[in-house]
């Protein structure tokens, strides 16, 4: 979990240095991540949602659902989906 927090902090610093106005939020409400993200985007009248994508098998998509797909289909604002860099 520390690695994730470190990565988020590094991204925050880089974006702020580039003049991007942002706020980092962390939730532990028991909701699905998609629900939290879409609710916050609506509350704050977000202009854009940026999400990361990673490759999953077809079975993984069926069994686990797809947060990314739900966000893309249900968001009230544009969504930018960014593919993760290859890890090989």
What would you say this structure looks like, in words?
2% of the residues are buried. The protein has a two-stranded parallel sheet with strand order 1-2. It is globular and about 40 Å long. By secondary structure, the chain is mainly alpha-helical. It starts with a helix and ends in a 5-residue tail after the last strand. Helix 2 packs parallel to helix 4. It is built from 4 helices and 2 strands, in the order H-H-E-H-H-E.
| Proportion of beta-strand residues | 5-15%
Largest pleated sheet: 2 strands, parallel
How many whole angstroms does the radius of gyration measure? 14 Å
- What is the N-to-C succession of helices and strands? HHEHHE
The total count of helices amounts to 4
Q: Could you give the count of β-strands?
A: 2
CATH architecture label name: 3-Layer(aba) Sandwich
Distance between the termini: 23 Å
Uncertain residue ranges:
none
CATH topology: Rossmann fold
Short key terms for the protein model shown above:
88 residues; mainly alpha; Rossmann fold; two-stranded parallel sheet; 4 helices; 48% helix; 11% strand
In short:
The chain is mainly alpha-helical and 88 residues long.
Secondary structure layout plus pairing:
Layout (H helix, E strand, L loop, with lengths): L1 H16 L15 H11 L5 E5 L4 H7 L2 H8 L4 E5 L5
Parallel strand pairs: 1-2
Helix pairs in contact: 2-4
């Amino acid at each position: 979990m520390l690695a994730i927090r470190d990565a988020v902090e590094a991204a925050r610093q880089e974006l702020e240095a580039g003049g991007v106005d942002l706020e980092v939020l962390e939730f532990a409400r028991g909701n699905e991540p998609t629900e939290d993200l879409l609710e916050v985007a609506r509350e704050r009248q977000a202009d854009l949602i940026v999400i990361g994508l990673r490759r999953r098998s077809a079975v993984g998509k069926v069994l686990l659902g797809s947060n990314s797909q739900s966000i893309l289909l249900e968001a009230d604002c544009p969504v930018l989906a960014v593919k993760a860099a290859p890890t090989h």
